[in-house]
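Proteins fold reproducibly. Look at a concrete instance:
___
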Amino acid sequence: MKSRIGALMLAILGAAATSTSMAQSTTRKLPDAVTADPKHYTVVFENDIVRLLRVRLDAGDTAPQHAHVAYCAIELSDSTLKEGDAQPSESKAGQVFCGDATSHGPKNVGKALAESIVVEFKNRQKAR
């Protein structure tokens, strides 16, 4: 019984260490989307509360790794995007996604232009 509890504690500590190192690697200092990739990300509106970005990834295009603060994304077209080795994710025009601060480098693995509007909430790391 003691060996099972010990093994369980080691597993929990290992998982905590892994998630801490993963969190640190995802919060490393990356440039924002517009700085990292002005070809695909353009500012369409900005004030002291939000910044709205228009995102346009042609079929086969990949955006370099970059960071976003807490955000909502509105899909303007159907799209299929992929992040690294993860499975592709499909979105439909009109879908809305919101999330906490993140970093990524999406690739358009679909056959058409992937277009969206991203609303970044300034000075926010977490969505409400």
User: Anything to note?
Assistant: Confidence is low (pLDDT under 50) at residues 1-27. The longest helix spans residues 2-26. The beta strands are 41-46, 50-57, 66-68, 71-75, 79-82, 89-91, 96-99, 102-104, 107-108, 114-121.
